[in-house]
Amino acid sequence: MEKEFVKSITAMDKDFAQWYTDVVTKADLVDYSSVRGSMIIRPYGYALWENIRDALDGMIKETGHENVYMPLFIPESLLEKEKDHIAGFAPEVAWVTHGGSEELAERLCVRPTSEVLFCEHYKNIIHSYRDLPKLYNQWANVVRWEKTTRPFLRTLEFLWQEGHTAHETDEDAHEETKRMLDVYATLLEDYLAVPVVKGQKTEKEKFAGAKFTYTVESLMHDGKALQSGTSHHLGDGFAKAFGINYLDREGKLQHVHQTSWGMTTRVIGALIMVHGDDRGLVIPPKVAPTQVMIVPIAQHKEGVLDFAYGLKERLSGAFRTGIDASDKNPGWKFNEYEMKGVPVRLEAGPRDIEKNQVVLVRRDTGEKLIATLDEVEEKLGALLTDIQQNLFDRAKELLEKKTSVAENMEQFKERLESNPGMIKAMWCGKRECEDKIKEETGATSRCIPFEQEKVSDTCVCCGGKAESMVVWAKAY
Amino acid sequence: MEKEFVKSITAMDKDFAQWYTDVVTKADLVDYSSVRGSMIIRPYGYALWENIRDALDGMIKETGHENVYMPLFIPESLLEKEKDHIAGFAPEVAWVTHGGSEELAERLCVRPTSEVLFCEHYKNIIHSYRDLPKLYNQWANVVRWEKTTRPFLRTLEFLWQEGHTAHETDEDAHEETKRMLDVYATLLEDYLAVPVVKGQKTEKEKFAGAKFTYTVESLMHDGKALQSGTSHHLGDGFAKAFGINYLDREGKLQHVHQTSWGMTTRVIGALIMVHGDDRGLVIPPKVAPTQVMIVPIAQHKEGVLDFAYGLKERLSGAFRTGIDASDKNPGWKFNEYEMKGVPVRLEAGPRDIEKNQVVLVRRDTGEKLIATLDEVEEKLGALLTDIQQNLFDRAKELLEKKTSVAENMEQFKERLESNPGMIKAMWCGKRECEDKIKEETGATSRCIPFEQEKVSDTCVCCGGKAESMVVWAKAY
Ligand SMILES: [Zn+2]
Ligand SMILES: [Zn+2]
To answer: Where is the Aminoacyl-transfer RNA synthetases class-II family profile domain (chains A, B) (predicted)?
Structure first.
């Protein structure tokens, strides 16, 4: 037996950023490369992404959307057609200036998002109300020239889906904007076990070119918020800039009303920072690449490996099942699959075989259970359901614990300091107050929640008449 | 009822290139954009790609490979590490020189293929024979700066998978090279119903940096060949350039042996040009986005639409089933779904309902069948199997009909002229003869087939001693 040292990670409380870096690399999710700010998504990380992608893709198709694929490059003149949009994205795009040895007559940007390409296409294919709605989605890589990067959270290139739809009326587009935000909330809460706050972005924080932006915001273990998915009502601004017209039911020429919405590999960062602990990753069963990992005990003894492989065969139909029959010792293996956040470890040794049983150990609580062979599927299924629910409940509790109310700036600062997390506070609606809060506290407006509470009568910043309750937080 | 004009396409025999363009655009597979040489893959085209991708991804995973994701950009210095490789790709890459408003210190190429990124990563993660083999695959977009482009066949950007593996021995890598070529052959023959010739590329035609390249070549309706998938034995050239070493079972430091293999959206071009006819696309049932399209007849009559929707509901569990209940007339619909290559049309009108039956019309032969309601699943299933087989048989027959033997250059030219297609001819192995054949006939060496036949004793070009039989053809 080869001696293997247990990998160790920095404690969360000691250095959360280092804890995160340790987890993503030591759990084999990513590796770095010589390409600045880009990451290699390793097999374990990519299998996790495939599960998330497939769940989301299923919901996107169920709600009537079709997948398409648009070009990677956007000619500069096309990007410039919608003025707010180009102003928002120009500072952070990568430019292709040469093809082979030739300099290009017009430079091409590597798509940071694909609104303008969809608009150009929609102009070609939409003519009548009969062509509407157009409900398209694309899975793609996009590039934004970020200065500071961290795996999953902020990278030069990332993977995402971007939905782009066109509708007859503003109301139809509004319905779509809400519908897709709900799909994102379902993915986060029901699959990733990450509770979210749903709401609208302020004017300052909305998407470049949008009428308004809806968002789902989640809260990490360190009290920072993470924007986890956004859905934009684009109004008819792009339609006017691109001339996307249709003949309506009365034969009148109208502009279409559009939406766009996106969710990215960033949600893996949310999953890690919401559920992870000092032993590593904790992955919710619904998206876990491996739901149960079989670790044979005293595997050199007769019958153990046969028994373990028999279980693997038997369980694989119903659960994503792994087995580690390598010659590393069980202690190393326990540590490794805890680090990788596998929801359940199944131990099977000579004494278990004798008693016709196995031991199930849950990752979230460390609790051990005995299951006899005839009840193993049933108990395992129930355990996975319970783990999924427990992760959500724990995260929900944390979100509530880390949410404070502030009525004035003194309270705001004190509470953000003593209990880092989300601050609910009233806002007058003025940009100056929003800017001032950021400047003085480091917290930004995360959203104006759909579920409003009147926590005070006056703006937390200026004391003026309050317009709405805003959730504020420091954010990734 | 709105009047709709039937879309028409150019006849194949009249202008094959125009026929192809008509089919890809009028069957709604692609659209053009203002991005030169790139295509928009529309919902119908993308659904076809998803089916092909999922079938191939399943086989790639079954053979033990794992999916990963590598960065889009490659620093110039990294691309330059393997000399043959950079020489092959430098003339056709796109260069990013600016990020936002800053000029980059080192320019980045948009990946034309990812060997060097995998090599850099393998150097990091491979240390011992215990780490081998590494069997990785990636689904991605790549860019090659092509001058002349055509949808699917040759585009600036295309979608593909690229496998990259590392092994202990040259033999292991050789086995892998063969295994993945067989996977490609299976995908083409069993799913796309496209028969292939398997063989090895000549030195001239092999991949830049490879020891040798295996290929599957298929033959289009117009007698031109299409390289449909390649599998490269990379030897240890990249390992030496990148320093990818491992401690072998005897504790000695060794270079790994590598392979890479790729298949692209190009195979959609093969499918179109092998099976299509003057009425449009013909899609093999196994990858068809819609396998059966229900067209209600006299749908304004009572009960017809209910009946048709009932069938849709009933058949959807077992078959990818569509329904067109729009107010376009049945003639338009027949034409539309023939154009789109849907394998089976199901007609249901008042008289069919009365008789408890439906009419099934196959796209490949136009043959009509009556199926009573209690046998519709069974007959439909058998029909789809039969269509799949018939498409392959027809294509195989065409391939054989369009394959000639030539013993000298006069025969070569005459046969290529009178029966455009593949020419089997002996070759001495010299580059000069290969070049001369291309210059005089326009045909290139497609491969040295694994199944050799001695069609003559001497080289078709120089009359020298023949080394092997080569298949030659004009190619896309
Ligand atoms: Zn205020
Ligand atoms: Zn010769």
So the answer is: 36-284
